[in-house]
Structures are given as structure tokens and as C-alpha cells.
Amino acid sequence: MYSRAHLLIEREFKNMSKDPPWGIEAWPMYDDTIFEWMAKIRGLQRTSWEGGIFKIYIKFDEHFSVRPPQVLFQTIPFHPNVEVCTGRPCVDFLDDYSLWKENFSISMLLVSLQTLLSFPVLKNAVNPEAASMLQNSPQSYRQMTQECVTASQRVEAGGSPQVTNPDSHAVRFNQPDVPARSTHNTRTAGATRVSKLSFDDYHNTWCGIATSKTRPDAVNPFLESIRGNPKLQEIHLGVPREELEDQMRKQMEEHSVLMYGKFKSQPSMESVRDAKIAHLERMKRIYLAPRQSPLPPREEIDIGKSLPALQATDANWEKEVDDLVNWTNTLDSNAIDAS
């Protein structure tokens, strides 16, 4: 006969299989026990974690659902609320049993972790470095999250978080060695084994994808490996190299203006001369009146010579008047009245 905890966990698995939340999968890891689960959550869409695939290990005990299960990130993200060494998420109802409610479901727990990735809580952060980067340099934090997303995709593909053959145009991975579980039989469908990651492997992984340096003369092996491949550099930086150089140039110009002021360039001699000539022309038009040419001398009119022409004009006019009067006298007044 199964225990109460076993029956509740089995019901949770049936509910998850029937109606899983978006981007969340969960299943028991082994056939002979239902108290150990493997979950997989994807980053929310339209956030910096979009495309990420993170595995979560869940271990129940006989006190479920009075007490919450143990939850650990197997794919540990660079996040203010996730411990770097253990992968334990900092969630109030997981840390304080008094805040856990018996009606809380595993679906709700995983959705809370999925939301926590995109909306971190900076108060009492368990990863101070990530919290400080998010507060002081959001662009660097976003770049780090993109590196986490890329690394999680490589791990999901069955490879290593790092690129191992930078000379090839295709990204290749080393197949990790997953130790088999000797005391239990693994599940045949969709089974995933939990493998522990040593601190040295973790440190080497993050040194390869981190953007900060432990010392000034340190060399980033990941940046060195993609130095000769422009395509991988564009993927790593998130923008084309030309656009990145243009942005850096603009930032340097803005920095110079803020620190030293904006200085105008020295005008050329030709532009100075043209400006002076234009100024003189304007002054001439304003203050110097235009010169007027003198009037031609008046001509003396001889009235005596003009009289014969005037008299001839008057004689012609009188003759026309007489002809008109004679014509009117010949008209029939009766015919005019009748018309």
C-alpha cells in the first residue's frame, strides 16, 4: 500500500501530464521510485532568458505536501536568486516551511521559478555578483544571461557549454559522460540522469563565457577561440561588428564632449574670405544709396513751326462736320418716324 505522499506525488504527475504549463516539463526520473523528479523549464518569451532550457532536480520526502520538496537547478544560471555552488533557488516558501501551503502544486512551483528567472528579486540576493551587475551594469547582465541561454542550449543538445573546435564553421560539442545509477532502474521513456558538476568544471565553464577578467592580463579562452570566426563573434556579441564599432565610436565622442567640451573645427581661409565679402555686400546694400544717372537736357519747342500742323488738323475736322450735317438733311423724317 502506498503512502499519502506517494499518492499525492502521483496525482501531481498526472495533472502535469494532462495540462502542463507553457515551457515546463516534469517527470519521475526512475521506475522504482516517484520521489525524484527531473523538470525542464524554458525562459519566458520576449525576455532576456528566451530560448534558455534549464533542468531542475526535485526530491520529495514522506512529508509532502506538508513540507515543500527539495529543489535544485541542475543547469545553474547566473542569477541573483540562484546560489552559484549548489543551484538552490532563493524562494520564500522553499526556504521557510511556514510559508508553504499544502494546496501548492508542483506546477505552481515550477511556474514561480520560470517567472523568477526574468523578474529577479535583488533584496537578500544569494548571488551578490549577479545582483551588483544587474544594478550597476544592466547591459553586461543582459549579455551574461544571453551567454547562459546559449550554454544551456548547448547542454540540451548533448554537448559542452563551450565551443571545442573554433576553426570549424559549425559549432561542435563534446558528449558528456553521464554516470549511470546503479541502485535503481532508469525509466525507458524520456529519462534523464542527474550528474554532479565539480567546481573546477564549473569554474572553467564560466571563465570561458564570462566577460569580466580576474586580473588585467587574463585571457578569455572563449573570445580567443572565436577571434578568427566573424560569424561566431556576431552571435556572441549580439550585433554585427561594424555596428558595435560604430556604437563604441559614438560613446567615445559623447565621453569626450562631456569631459572636455565640444570644440568647433578651424574654418578654412576660403570660407573666411567668402564670409567677409558677403558681409561687405550686405553693408553696401543697406547704407549706400544706388546712383541715379542725370536727366537728358530739355529740348526747346518751336511753337511757330507746330502751328501749321495744328491748323491743318482743325480744317480737316471742320470739313468732316459739314459733310455730316449735309447728310442728315437728306434723310426722310417720315420714314424714320415710321420705323
Structure commentary:
The chain has a 4-stranded antiparallel sheet with strand order 1-2-3-4. It has a domain at 1-155: Ubiquitin Conjugating Enzyme (Roll). The chain is α+β, with helices and mostly antiparallel strands and 339 residues long. It has helices at residues 4-18, 92-95, 106-118, 128-136, 138-156, 199-209, 221-225, 230-237, 241-260, 269-287, 303-329, 333-338; strands at 24-28, 36-42, 53-59, 70-73. The protein is elongated. Helix content is 46%, strand content 7%. It contains 12 helices and 4 strands, in the order αββββααααααααααα.
Find the CATH superfamily of the domain at 1-155: Ubiquitin Conjugating Enzyme
Derived from helix and strand composition plus strand pairing, the structural class reads alpha+beta
Radius of gyration: 48 Å
Distance between the termini: 141 Å
Number of strands: 4
H-E string: HEEEEHHHHHHHHHHH
User: Mean pLDDT score, rounded?
Assistant: 78
Task: Please estimate the helix content.
Answer: 40-55%
Global morphology: elongated
CATH architecture of the domain at 1-155: Roll
Strand content: 5-15%
Annotated CATH topology of the domain at 1-155: Ubiquitin Conjugating Enzyme
Unreliable runs: 164-180, 182-186
CATH domain class of the domain at 1-155: Alpha Beta
How would a crystallographer describe the biggest sheet?
Answer: 4 strands, antiparallel
How is this structure best summarized?
The active site is at 90 (glycyl thioester intermediate). The chain is α+β, with helices and mostly antiparallel strands and 339 residues long.
